[in-house]
Sequence to fold (146 residues):
Amino acid sequence: MDKLPEKQPNGFQEGQSVELVIGDRTELGYKAMINNSQWGMLYKNEVFQPLRKGQHIKGFIKKLRDDGKIDLCLQKPGYEKVDEVSEKIIDTLKAAGGFVSVSDKSPPEIIYSLFGVSKKTYKKAIGALYKRRIILIENKGIKLIQ
Fold:
């Protein structure tokens, strides 16, 4: 079960949505079977939720590597992901009366529990919202500009 069924990542594209079955945990992260056809890798520093062997989960092709291996992620890669997160942040701010006490200095666990994303993705999203003059970034959190 540890061998790759095929060497070349036939038919996959970066950013593509795929069905994953979680395999063994390794030093790097988790092996995962992609669409019941090929193994890929979810790196532990990019996984922000508990995973168990045999678990079925939606994922994405992050990178098709030159060595034929496939890097995976559980969140949509690139700027599409930031747009989704930006919407979630705006919705959360509206629900909380325009302010949440989560800043770019907050622990990654708090950011994940609120928004379901990594701290890096959160920072990209609030940066984009700040540039578009939708939010203010304050010491103690972020504020929706009315």
